[in-house]
Design brief:
It contains 3 helices and 2 strands; from the N terminus they run H-H-E-E-H. By secondary structure, it is mainly α. The chain has a domain of 67 residues: Nuclear Transport Factor 2, Chain: A (Roll), CATH 3.10.450.50. Strands 1-2 form a two-stranded antiparallel ribbon. The N and C termini lie far apart (30 Å). The relative contact order is 0.21.
């Protein structure tokens, strides 16, 4: 069973097309940094108002400290973990970036 990981994406047409492309680039960069286990790089992709919603477990991490703790625990518990979310999926899979 597949669990959605985020809310609907920014529409990829009209006036928001450029924003959608830029957002997808951030998502793709974020995934690369996750797969490299680059904690500082991952945290930079969250910007000033970090928040991570783990919908599968009903957990919500608000603020840089909580998001950092989430990733520290994840990377420690699963040292060989890699995201299966790919750049190709970012073209079709919903995601959200909130500022």
């Amino acid at each position: 069973m597949e669990v959605p990981v985020a809310s609907p994406s920014i529409p990829a047409d009209g006036a928001k097309k450029g924003q959608a492309v830029a957002s997808r680039r951030v998502v793709e960069q974020h995934i690369r940094l996750e797969n490299d286990h680059d904690l500082e790089g991952v945290l930079r992709t969250f910007g000033d108002s970090a928040r991570y919603d783990d919908e599968a477990w009903g957990e919500h991490y608000k603020g840089g400290n909580e998001v950092r703790l989430f990733y520290e625990q994840l990377l420690k518990a699963l040292p060989t973990w890699k995201s299966r979310y790919s750049a190709a999926m970012s073209q079709t899979t919903p995601f959200s970036l909130k500022s």
